[in-house]
Amino acid sequence: MTVEHDSAGRVAAVVFDYGQVISEPPSAEARDRLERLGGVPAADFWSAYWAERPGYDAGGTASGYWQRVADRLGADWDPAHVQRLWAADVAAWLGICRDSAATLRRLATAGVRLALLSNAPHDLAGALRAAPVLEPFDRLFFSCELGICKPDPAVYRHVLADLGTPAEHTLFVDDREENVLAAKRLGIDAHHYAGARELDRFLAGRLGAF
Q1: I need a surface site. Which of 21, 76, 124, 149 has the fewest CB within 10 A?
Q2: Residue 3: its pLDDT value, please?
Q3: Strands lying side by side in the sheet with 189-192
Q4: Residue range 184-202, pLDDT digits in tens
Q5: What radius of gyration do the chain's Cα atoms show?
Q6: Mind listing the pLDDT tens digit for each residue in 131-172?
Q7: Does an H or E element contain 203, and which?
Q8: DSSP helix/strand/coil, 101
């Protein structure tokens, strides 16, 4: 039975970020592969990679994203090389944290309503919509489909309206402090993710045993 809001103030839903909360950080091997494909010093590659990410996460195309990264780096990648970069990048974000997966399973078994709110491009969002670990989730919200990214307050307002849950009875878990602070400013009960143990303590404090 789904856990819903009631007059006693029970939790109406738990909204999770994906990257580095449910997912593992990209492995050393995945990072190395991307750096080798980039063909520039690692620091330069990651600087360009992250600088251009907001537009990609907000709905930009993969080809456009990698062209902008190339422009920053002064690189000239042919379409086959861009395809390899794209494939390596998507794959780098598909590894799942076993502890987080176990927590999600316990929450789902207890009937807790789950939702996802992730800054992610269309390429990754498409893969995640078929991901087994996310099957128990009631709703999946991706920045690429909304056209805006966390920590824009409009993202959180959209999620709350879609779920139909009061902010104060909606839990939110994210690994980025700016996203957590933005949620808290709207009255959402937000947790800055720093590991599975702290997450379980946070959830137990709101949900009791699960």
Answers
A1: 76
A2: 41
A3: 139-142, 114-118, 13-16, 170-174, 189-192
A4: 999 999 999 999 999 999 9
A5: 18
A6: 999 999 999 999 999 999 999 999 999 999 999 999 999 999
A7: helix 196-207
A8: helix
Residue 3 lies in a domain: no
Place 2 in a pLDDT band, splitting at 50, 70 and 90: very low
Element (H, E) at 184: helix 177-185
Which residue in the block uniquely carries the two structure tokens 């190339």? 70
Burial (Cβ within 10 Å: 0-12, 13-18, ≥19) of residue 204: exposed
Cα–Cα distance, 208 to 201 (Å, whole number): 9
Segments forming the whole domain that contains residue 71: 28-92
**Angstrom distance (rounded) from CA 56 to CA 48:** 12
State the CB neighbour count (10 A cutoff) for residue 23: 23
List of E strands, the chain: 13-16, 114-118, 139-142, 170-174, 189-192
pTM across the whole model: 0.92
> What tokens were used for 165?
């849950």
What element of type H or E holds 88? Answer: helix 79-92
User: The domain that contains 202 carries what CATH number?
Assistant: 3.40.50.1000
The rounded percent of the chain whose pLDDT value lies above 70 is 96
Q: Are 148 and 125 in contact (CB under 8 A)?
A: no
Q: What crossing angle do the helices spanning 62-73 and 42-51 adopt, rounded to 10°?
A: 130
Q: Structural domain tally of the chain?
A: 2
- Degrees to nearest 5, angle at CA 129 with 157 and 105: 85
Residue 190, helix vs strand vs coil: strand
